[in-house]
Amino acid sequence: MTGSPPTALRPQHPSPRSLRGLADEFGFDVRGELGDLEVTGVGLSSAAARPGDLYVGVPGRNAHGAQFAVAAREAGAVALLTDEAGAALATDAGLPILVTADARAALGDVAAWIHRTADNPATLFAVTGTNGKTSVVYLLYGILRQLGVIAGLTSTAERRIGDEAVTSSLTTPEASELHALLARMREVDVRAVGIEVSAQALSRHRVDGLVFDIAGFTNLSHDHLDDYATLEEYFEAKLELFQPGRARRGVVTVDSAWGERLARESGIPVTTLTTRADVAADWRLTVLDEEAAYTSFVLEGADGRRLETRVPLLGWYMAANAALAIVMLVDAGYDFARIAEVLERAGGIDAYIPGRAERISGDRGPIVYIDYGHSPDAFLQTLAAIRRFTTGRVVMVFGADGDRDTTKRAEMGAIAARGADVVVVTDFHPRFEDPAAIRAALIEGARAAVPDREIHEIADPREAFRTALALADEGDSILYAGPGHEDYHEVRGVKLPYSAREDSKQALRDAGWLE
Ligand SMILES: CC(=O)N[C@H]1[C@@H](OP(=O)(O)OP(=O)(O)OC[C@H]2O[C@@H](n3ccc(=O)[nH]c3=O)[C@H](O)[C@@H]2O)O[C@H](CO)[C@@H](O)[C@@H]1O[C@H](C)C(=O)N[C@@H](C)C(=O)N[C@H](CCC(=O)O)C(=O)O
Ligand SMILES: Nc1ncnc2c1ncn2[C@@H]1O[C@H](COP(=O)(O)OP(=O)(O)OP(=O)(O)O)[C@@H](O)[C@H]1O
């Protein structure tokens, strides 16, 4: 597998719209003849262009998209929307050109217009925060289905339309892809959609052209300090979601000072939620029991409403994620009594989250989790959750992303060394960095925190997992953090096939622990 374009889900029966009408609606400057041309789709990538598309050429880190206008035309695009610099690059591309000052900033509204996403929209839920976004979106999806609602989602792992799923590339799709996805969802009667909204999506206009019914916030901790100079800037990117024009109401977890500040500075009405006994909030979560297979909890409103249920997932934070999903549903108008009735049935919440503390081991041998956690706080929370029920040793296998926030590596190493009995440092996605240097930074952090911790350095992830497995026995747990649901290993621009889930299951079978 190499860097193939993401699979985009699009409406199957788009209604064409006049290009002249589009230019008039948005006041674009027109170069060339529009005649009676019509558009049926819109996109940012020449590789994903389809017949009838408006191709949008935006400047990027590596290139100006307008350079690829000829390839887009050859794939069937009927016109180009770009800025002045792009128009100069594409004069000979053989496409009529619509010109605007900032094509990326125009994209959301243009995509909404082409796909008519404001007509009969589903209820839209946005989830943001450093950790837990994917989990909350899947929990929303699961509970909605238990309520009998046809639901959709977009997450780091997958985009889902009812039962149909495709693997994601970006966490939050580009605006053109997002509006196409919503238009496709409307065709199959999806009535509620959970959308994972990264800070980058807010900074890069990916959720423009939408107003969410409810925006939810999980937490904020160290991550993405390659895209944002400081945590303050990262916070401000997230705060933008809690403003009129972006969302109508918010639900904010106020466990941390960041959450309290978000609730205070939000420009929309906010409902608060806490898991802490010492914090005042509209809703309070109390965890009752944390087991390897589930976490049970009580959710109580300040007005006396109460439900008791369980989530089939590891860790107190999955109960917090579930509580956030429930309060978001209540604020969107779903009846609390009906939610309680459905969730208080035996089994509780019915949700599966690919690659988030996903247990891949069977009934025998060490318990093995594959986890997408790749931030210091995710390591901390997952290790603590596993430690609670592990009678033997905790072995942790992990690496760190290349070409991404390098400042978190020492802390990741330190948390692993403090929380695990044995640490196996391996390669994750080195990308264009030297993998040995990434491992060295993690090991240095681990050694500085716990000098005598048992540490193994094994570059190949397949071999690293097998080493961890050889070191573990009945009663022990292995946390393999990083790859989660992913099915590739990215080295020097090439995505090599590798599924931590499938390969580690094979290793368990080879060791005789799994049928
Ligand atoms: C920093 C960033 O967000 N980059 C995104 C951006 O890339 P870029 O600006 O460098 O684009 P470029 O390569 O210069 O190309 C310019 C334009 O030409 C187009 N092009 C390029 C080549 C070609 O042959 N044909 C073509 O049409 C591109 O589609 C693009 O529109 O536009 C690309 C096209 O949509 C994205 O794939 C790319 O995301 C990259 C892969 C990325 O890693 N983004 C990360 C930082 C990100 O957004 N992460 C967040 C958070 C994840 C989390 O929560 O952990 C996310 O939401 O995923
Ligand atoms: N509420 C939470 N608080 C702290 N850690 C959490 C929470 N929820 C999940 N985690 C940890 O973070 C990891 C990633 O969870 P999840 O994928 O839901 O987060 P995310 O915000 O979607 O991250 P990403 O955008 O990178 O996918 C989990 O595997 C778990 O280790």
UniProtKB/TrEMBL annotation:
It is found in: Cytoplasm. NCBIfam families: murE. It is an enzyme of class 6 (ligase). This is UDP-N-acetylmuramyl-tripeptide synthetase. Catalyzes the addition of an amino acid to the nucleotide precursor UDP-N-acetylmuramoyl-L-alanyl-D-glutamate (UMAG) in the biosynthesis of bacterial cell-wall peptidoglycan. Its main location: cytoplasm. The keyword Magnesium applies. GO terms for molecular function: ligase activity. Residues 355-483 form the Mur ligase C-terminal domain. Pfam families: Mur_ligase, Mur_ligase_C, Mur_ligase_M. InterPro entries: Folylpolyglutamate_synth_CS, Mur-like_cat_sf, Mur_ligase_C, Mur_ligase_C_dom_sf, Mur_ligase_cen, Mur_ligase_N, MurE/MurF_N, UDP-N-AcMur-Glu-dNH2Pim_ligase. Its EC number is 6.3.2.-. Pathway: Cell wall biogenesis; peptidoglycan biosynthesis. Carboxylation is probably crucial for Mg(2+) binding and, consequently, for the gamma-phosphate positioning of ATP. It comes from Agromyces humatus.
